[in-house]
Amino acid sequence: MKTIIEPFRIKSVEPIFVTTPEERKAILEQAFYNPFLVNAEHVLIDLLTDSGTSAMSSHQWAGIMQGDESYAGSRSFFHFESVVKSITGMPFIIPTHQGRASEKILFSILGGKGKFFVSNTLFDTTRANIEFSGATGIDLLCEEGKHPAIPAPFKGNLDTVALEQFIKEKGAETIPAVILTITNNSGGGQPVSMQNIKEVKAICAANQIPFYIDACRFAENAYFIKLREDGYQNSSIEDIAKEMFSYADGATMSAKKDAFANIGGFLALHSEALAKECRNLLIITEGFPTYGGLAGRDLEAIAIGLREVMEESYLQYRIRSIEYLSDKLHAAGVPVMRPAGGHAIYIDSKAFLPHIPVAQYPGQALVCELYLAGGIRSVEIGSLMFGKYDEAGELIPAAMELVRLAIPRRVYTQSHIDYVSEVVIDVFQRRDLIKGLEITEEAPLLRHFTAKLKPLQ
């Protein structure tokens, strides 16, 4: 059949609060034109993030009731550990309260001034933890990924020619790790091919550089490989995932994405010596190594979710539902990243609002307008999130100006998504009336979370 139905039934519901345009105008003003500062009860459709916003299954809720809350050596930890070991093939598994905690621990040990971490595209918290250590994050996205409107099967790939050149210029000794983000969140939720993973691994091995995977959306990436890469059509998602991880020396993961959990993450490693260092830091910052800042019930939910996310019926529904919204917007002329990514729709705000200069943050202007028009909360992934300043205080813009509509897993129905498309298309049809913004207050790192802005007159 042409219709892809949700492979689940809804067992519990929660209310959505409806606001008027007048109320949203006042709310946005009070939030200084930053939807991160808007109370959730004032949001109609929340597409700010897919992190920690998924609906857990009845099996996960049952697992929560069986969580072992022992401080040390809990049964739930060993269940969690066995599942992560099985998927990643890595012997040392360190739980953390979320992905950025794993990053903080890893980069505190590996980072430092004069060092470079190279990636296809680093996401915000990854880059912030690298920079906090004194190191520099370098994005080497493939050329296809830099053109939102031009379809390509694996636009999340790392440019291997540029990687080899960078290693030659800076020296392998200055690069503690190369990191592949799968799928490539900042690059439009685009997948990374198995061939690219193999090529990056080969380059790293030849130069004795450790290779890591940011595995937040590993199952979605594996499904894209099954759909689009020769030789994998008859492979299971689990087998593809295991092969992806087999090339890596380590992995970080926020379990708030592809494990359906509301909190949690892990650091997986092959190196026993590095794992010992990480565990020592874990004890100082997160907790004992067998709970790592998590309740036993959360460890159970993650272990169950990691299995559920690899079910092909779910992944078929997940990827097709993202395509559904992307196709509707594309048909209406809205400039979206093509093809659709795995977890979100990415609108090219530079093409959507060509009259707003980059220095006036067109992505954030669009984010605000979507909230005003329909109570939809989204996030800018552009120069507000990733922009820097030069010595003269002038903005160094991000590579792309995107707005992400991140779809929580198993949360919204087709009618919700149809509503989202109607709001976006309505805003697109009167886009010439939208004005830019300026920053009035910002933090030195991760400024988009707390920045205050105001409209330009």
From TrEMBL:
It comes from the Bacteria. The keyword Disulfide bond does not apply. InterPro entries: ArAA_b-elim_lyase/Thr_aldolase, Beta-eliminating_lyase, PyrdxlP-dep_Trfase, PyrdxlP-dep_Trfase_major, PyrdxlP-dep_Trfase_small, Tryptophanase_CS. Residues 46-422 form the Aromatic amino acid beta-eliminating lyase/threonine aldolase domain. Its cofactor is pyridoxal 5'-phosphate. It holds the Pfam family Beta_elim_lyase. This is Tryptophanase.
